[in-house]
Amino acid sequence: RPIAGLADSKKLTARRREQLFLEIRDNALCYAVAQCSREEIDELNILQASLLSMTRAIEALAITPHRVIVDGNRCPQTDLPVQAIVKGDLTEPAISAASILAKVTRDRQMVELHQEYPQFGFDQHKGYPTKVHQERLLAFGVTGHHRLSYRPVAELGMPAIALTDQSNMFAMVKFYRAAIAKGIKPIFGV
């Protein structure tokens, strides 16, 4: 049955998104939410990781759809007929529903992350580059949950004792993660 009130998730209040999330979950023929790890995003880039997440969600569906529609101008890899629709979350109820499912899932993850790192205020800014989030990054540094390729994190300029001559951004991200895992705060030099 049609669900009233579907819209671009960014234009809905958090409360309304939660209400619609439950209604979508309870009434959808099937749905799947998929994501990429922060390492995959750092390695692939945000666009390619988004497309990979779409592919994973399509593959996770309990029922194979006849066609796939996605928001934007790029299509994920799938053997199914797929159409990208720019601003599709404004015109296509299925895309609006997917947008709501994804946003609520991510926001819930940020609230959980707040339990582990309350000093960052993830429950308030949900990981977006607000002034408060950027101030907290400066005050407390980067967690293992931050994407290192994300501009506010990459621009921190953390002090370091390790150097690399890697000029490739993705190689530098791998180097950075390895250094952080060993307790070293790296800097990059070419």
TrEMBL record:
PROSITE patterns: RNASE_H_2. The keyword Translocase does not apply. CDD domains: RNase_HII_bacteria_HII_like (cd07182). It comes from the Eukaryota. One of its GO terms (biological process) is mismatch repair. One of its GO terms (molecular function) is metal ion binding. It catalyses: Endonucleolytic cleavage to 5'-phosphomonoester. This is Ribonuclease. The lineage of its organism: Eukaryota, Metazoa, Ecdysozoa, Arthropoda, Crustacea.
